[in-house]
Design a protein that fits this description.
117 residues; mainly alpha; two-stranded antiparallel sheet; 7 helices; 73% helix; globular
């Protein structure tokens, strides 16, 4: 899930229309097109991850993030941070008890669509 969140922007920018549709369905709900700009409400888990990334950058400094040679290294560095414990707990609780079946389906489709072989 975290890898999907980390790479979704890159996949969206470089992907085809199917990739973009899968990403949008996974990360957001209630899409609205206003003045040729798409607006949507981010799903809870992606808000939590976004908060965690911001805290990790604040904790470790942007320099460490920019020095990372790859997205995989960024992922490992972020996950090592102790602040992720509470975020993972929130996400796990949400996914096991609060998630709507349609949302779960959208997330599973997105994760499998972009799964590395």
């Amino acid at each position: 899930m975290f890898e999907f969140a980390l790479l979704a922007k890159q996949w969206f920018e470089n992907g085809d229309s199917i990739d973009k549709k899968v990403i949008l369905k996974a990360i957001g709900v209630n899409p609205i097109l206003l003045d040729q700009k798409l607006d949507y409400q981010p799903r809870f888990i992606f808000l939590k991850i976004k908060d965690g990334v911001k805290k990790a950058i604040d904790e470790n400094g942007r320099r460490d993030l920019e020095k990372s040679p790859s997205n995989q290294t960024k992922l490992k560095n972020f996950v090592k941070s102790s602040l992720w414990c509470t975020i993972w707990d929130d996400v796990r609780t949400y996914l096991t008890s609060s998630i709507d079946p349609k949302e779960k389906s959208s997330l599973m489709i997105a994760f499998s669509h972009f799964k590395k072989e």
